[in-house]
Amino acid sequence: MTKIKKEIQGERLKAVMLVATLKKSPEVSNTQMMCQYLAEHLKPYNVASEIIRMVDFNIFPGLARNMGKGDEWPKIIPKMLKADIIIFATPIWWGIESSVMQRAIERLDTENDTLLETGISPFANKVGGIVVSGAEDGAQHIIGNLLNFMVWNGLTMSPACSFSRLGGLPETYAETKKLFDEKEADSTKLQAEVMARNLVHVVRLLKKDPFQDKRIHQRDISAGTVGIRH
Predict the structure, then answer these.
(1) Which of 31, 122, 176, 226 is deepest in the core (most CB within 10 A)?
(2) 142 burial level (CB within 10 Å; 0-12, 13-18, 19+)
(3) Which residues contact 17 (CB under 8 A, 6 or more apart)?
(4) Quick check: is 63 in a domain?
(5) CB–CB of 131/192 below 8 Å?
(6) What is the C-alpha to C-alpha distance for residues 154 and 10, in angstroms, rounded to an integer?
């Protein structure tokens, strides 16, 4: 490996990708295959990616980190808190994100409460990204919704932080990768390359010069309050 490549790689980083497909394993998921493709483009930057298909877990509805016996959300949230990069990946259903993605957002409400109460976000100095797949329009709307949630919960978003594609995909990842690499090199492949490069660049900037949150002690928060207080 050349010296330049070593400098580009830098220290080992961790990415967690929350896949919100409605299909349980081992059924083929276009959203998951897109995440696999993005993970391949993150790997040269020394990023280890973990892809979590949320529908394979028993995630209870609710607003707490742990909703009691049988709730498997507590297996997921620690992985997010240890990651440098967090990806929300969802298919399009009737123009919006999937119900699985929405449930994850609702379960993360407790992290927003922590931010409001203390001024410190559990996701401070982590970088977010979005993957959207589907056979219908709605990607821009979903990206806008997820961006709003992510930035107001402390995640930093890079330029070109989303990777989206409309239309069907082959049945295997090998065929999908070939399609992206060869027939869609100037569109899908380029999106993944630019997104991976930008995510890692911003992570490394934050490690050198992290945001300094102002600690506060806020109580009696009004219902429906969101955002960062200083």
Answers:
(1) 31
(2) buried
(3) 35, 38, 39, 49, 50, 51, 52, 87, 89, 131
(4) yes
(5) no
(6) 24
Q: How far is CA 206 from the centre of its chain?
A: 17
Give 120's pLDDT tier (boundaries 50, 70, 90).
confident
How many angstroms separate the Cα of 85 from the Cα of each of 15, 39, 41, 82, 201?
4, 11, 14, 9, 11
Residue 99 CA to residue 120 CA, distance in Å, equals 28
Boundaries of domain holding 48? 10-208
Note if the pTM is more than 0.85.
Answer: yes
Residue 190: give its domain's CATH number.
3.40.50.360
pLDDT, mean of residues 181-189 = 96
Return the pLDDT at 14.
98
Q: For the residues 19-43, what does the mean pLDDT come to?
A: 97
Residue position matching structure tokens 């961790």: 14
Q: Which two tokens stand for residue 153?
A: 């919960």
> What backbone phi and psi angles, to 5 degrees, belong to 53?
-85, 100
**Residue 1 located in a structural domain:** no
In a domain, 215, yes or no: no
The SS3 assignment for 213 reads coil
